[in-house]
Design brief:
This protein has three helices and two strands, in the order ααβαβ.
């Protein structure tokens, strides 16, 4: 719902707009978690999955548990 609110607010633009929209669509279709990473960064996939806070953006279903506490 937070990602949808960002899309509706108009604060997301450029290349992030289709990325966020595709993530929202995937979660609505039943995917539990979607990650957006900068593939130019060395070991970005490992850092996202195996560190507490990660380095990318994770969009998760409302029912999923967050990786870290806010």
């Amino acid at each position: 719902s937070e990602a949808e609110a960002l899309l509706e607010s108009g604060n997301v633009g450029g290349g992030m707009l289709p990325k966020i929209q595709n993530c929202v669509d995937a979660v609505k279709a039943g995917v539990g978690k979607v990650h957006i990473l900068d593939g130019r960064m060395e070991h970005s996939l490992l850092l996202e999955f195996f560190t507490n806070k990660g380095i990318g953006t994770a969009i998760i279903q409302e029912s999923e548990e967050k990786y870290w506490n806010e």
